[in-house]
Design brief:
184 residues, alpha+beta, 3-stranded antiparallel beta sheet, 22% helix
Length: 184
């Protein structure tokens, strides 16, 4: 049985579509506002060829928007910017928020492979803070935190004594100690 170019193209198309999941855009969501997508760009253009230069900070699971807001409002470094868009992890695009320090991604959750989004403007940051700036730990059960444990990025149960002051802060990969700033 011979395979024609059309059959092969169709098979490649079906295979790729089965490997990558793209969530539906929430029409009422923050990133669907007029003009946002016009400013979006591929933040990691060399994602195939180089390891991303992440700065990992402690952050709550499934709370990238609140985590990024905390990192941004704590402003441990000059030049920090707040970004919103999508990030790719293991074949799935996730709506995601992160900060940037120069060309380095400040990540509070997983090490995503590809980041696509836009830096928020002053007006957008104000709206973003009103929408995502609150986080009620009391109402959450079984909350987990991404942190550095035993020299690796790990997801661990939230311990208020251990993580109460560390959210949005970078830890040293070797010692696990909280650093004074970001990316130093």
């Amino acid at each position: 049985m011979s395979v024609t170019n059309d059959n092969l193209s169709d098979e490649i198309d079906r295979t790729l579509r089965s490997l990558i999941h793209v969530p539906r855009l929430n029409r009422g969501g923050f990133i669907s506002r007029p003009g946002f997508w016009d400013r979006c760009c591929l933040v990691t253009p060399n994602w195939r060829d180089q390891f991303n230069h992440w700065i990992f900070v402690d952050g709550f699971e499934n709370a990238s928007k609140w985590n990024a807001w905390k990192v941004f409002t704590d402003s441990l470094e000059d030049g920090l910017s707040l970004w919103l868009g999508y990030a790719l992890f293991r074949g799935s695009w996730k709506e995601h928020a992160w900060c940037m320090l120069g060309d380095r991604i400040v990540e509070s959750t997983l090490p995503f492979r590809i980041y696509y989004g836009a830096e928020l403007t002053g007006n957008e940051r104000e709206l973003f803070g009103k929408e995502y700036g609150g986080f009620d730990l009391v109402s959450r059960t079984n909350t987990k935190v991404f942190t550095i444990a035993d020299c690796f990025r790990e997801l661990v149960p939230f311990d208020p004594k251990l993580h109460g002051a560390s959210i949005g802060r970078e830890r040293d990969f070797k010692t696990g100690m909280i650093k004074d700033g970001l990316g130093r």
